[in-house]
Amino acid sequence: MEPLSATDSLSVTVNGKRRDIRGARAHTTTLEWLRESGLSGTKEGCAEGECGACAIMVARSDDSDGTVWTAVNSCLLPVAALDGQEVVTAEGLATADALHPVQAELAERGGSQCGYCTPGFACSMAAEFYRRGRGTDDIPADPGNLAGTEACGERGPNGFDLHALSGNLCRCTGYRPIRDAAYALGDPDPDDVLAARRDRPSAGPVSTVLTAPDGTFVRPATLADAVGLLAEHTEAVLVAGSTDWGVDVNLRGRRSPVVIAIDALPELRGVDVGADFVQIGAAVTLSEAERVLAGRVPLLADLFPQFASRLIRNQATFGGNLGTGSPIGDAPPALLALGARLVLASSDGQREVALEDYFTGYRTTVLRPGELILAVRIPLPLAALCGFHKISKRRFDDISSVAVAWAIDVENGVVRRARVGLGGVAATPMRARDTERALIGQPWTSETAAAAALVLGAEGTPMDDHRASARYRSAMLEQAMLKFYADAAVDQELGS
Ligand SMILES: Cc1cc2nc3c(=O)[nH]c(=O)nc-3n(C[C@H](O)[C@H](O)[C@H](O)COP(=O)(O)OP(=O)(O)OC[C@H]3O[C@@H](n4cnc5c(N)ncnc54)[C@H](O)[C@@H]3O)c2cc1C
Ligand code: FES
Ligand code: FES
């Protein structure tokens, strides 16, 4: 492998103007860099992905030769990760003569009062404004999913998906004027340059080396280089979407001598629906997986809207969610219920492990030094009955107190197959095996569900912490089982 030598030309195009980032450090976030560059329209509220004041738009490739304007939290993203790419901040929305339509509507309808949140809202709103096919024709029809349910959304008469704003907080307006502004947006004008930009491809991440006193940021060009570097630098930290990394850097002062970005490696970027399994690359963002799968894995379609916010999902990856080894990540319970397997890669080659064998203890996994997650495999066929219940303090954009996922097959009124995944009740995500045993072979009735609920409430060893008491967690598990059964019964009655 080549030694690490700094890339000559490191730059980001901001609002149409190319800017040098060679002076940045390996851990400089995009928000810090923008503000230090004089673009102080982008605000810092929390520096941990919770408020959206720092939202900007990044030009990303769509599935063909065009560009999707994608809103992200600039406080979490290392600026080096944007090398060679193009972003638009709140300053880049208006022209010299006129406000941008989202700014005009926010102003007109009282959607901006103290104004601190407004640049972030404007960027999240603009990304949705430019979403191709926004409008009623774009509400995903049932694509013939692989099990049989459908996704939901909250959309205005103009097709505006309110989930686009789920990562933006406002303390002044009470939100209704902001929703009014979003729902009043028309289509982009024919001479709108950001709309026209969608027709050309975006550059995408390039291979980068930025060396600075606080460390080296490197985006290797190939998987072989990435695993080679990882083997060589055992102290290195991997980043994909950097939504966990950014919090560690901003709030916990974490600094690593080497940061290896794996977000652009082709082997980690595909979503493939095969005959035997669905494979999702570890560096595919949750938003991308949601768009490409389009409801074909209903359990994941249930999970996506409950996972953080649109801003976070535009960056967060499955690999990152599993890479942390967290007991309260939302993907593991869903993937455990789906019977997922992980493909792991290192300079010694690849191996596959069942997700249920992946976690070994609190934030520890079977990943060996120098190894990374390449992809997640979900075996087919999928179970017909599935659901993901996340119990948290807020409906959206919150970490689970407890999460439970089901994948159940019922034949002739009897449960033939049941997998139940749990998060937040033990040191690791786990399968609720006692509950599975209480279901399998039993008639699929409210009595069976009630008996299984008692068993589910006793699974794991939930703890008391600031999110929830152990008793509350157990009670929520019981309720979740009853609700899952009731929802399934309603769906059955409606024939969906
Ligand atoms: C505001 C906010 C809200 C959140 N809400 C939720 C939520 O609702 N549910 C939830 O589950 N999580 C949530 N998270 C946590 C986070 O977004 C997820 O864990 C996300 O999936 C991490 O993905 P990433 O690509 O951003 O990870 P990164 O930050 O890039 O990496 C995270 C860790 O995983 C490792 N890693 C990354 N990719 C790989 C790989 N391919 N192989 C091995 N290791 C790897 C990295 O080394 C690092 O240690 C939230 C975070 C924030 C900031
Ligand atoms: S500053 Fe709050 S999300 Fe970035
Ligand atoms: S207008 Fe004040 S925070 Fe939103």
Name the CATH architecture of the domain at 385-494: 2-Layer Sandwich
Q: What's the rounded overall pLDDT mean?
A: 92
Number of strands: 20
Major beta sheet, strand line-up: 2-1-5-3-4
Task: Let me know the largest β-sheet.
Answer: 5 strands, mixed
What molecules are bound to this protein?
flavin-adenine dinucleotide, FE2/S2 (inorganic) cluster
At the first level of CATH, the class of the domain at 385-494 is Alpha Beta
| CATH fold node name of the domain at 385-494 | Enolase-like, domain 1
CATH superfamily of the domain at 385-494: CO dehydrogenase flavoprotein, C-terminal domain
The CA-CA distance between the termini, in Å, is 54 Å
Low-confidence stretches: 137-152
Radius of gyration: 23 Å
Q: What structural class do helix, strand and pairing data support?
A: alpha+beta
Tally of contiguous helical segments: 15
What's the overall geometry? globular
The portion of residues assigned to helices is 25-40%
Strand content: 15-25%
Write the topology of this structure.
Elements: E1 11-14, E2 17-20, H1 30-36, E3 55-61, E4 67-73, E5 86-88, H2 101-108, H3 118-129, H4 176-183, H5 193-197, E6 208-212, E7 215-219, H6 223-232, E8 237-239, H7 243-252, E9 258-261, E10 271-273, E11 277-281, H8 286-293, H9 298-303, H10 310-313, H11 318-323, H12 331-337, E12 341-346, E13 349-354, E14 359-361, E15 364-365, E16 372-379, E17 385-391, E18 402-411, E19 414-423, E20 430-431, H13 433-439, H14 446-457, H15 470-494
Parallel strand pairs: 1-5, 7-9, 8-9
Antiparallel strand pairs: 1-2, 3-4, 3-5, 6-7, 10-11, 11-16, 12-13, 12-16, 14-15, 17-18, 18-19, 19-20
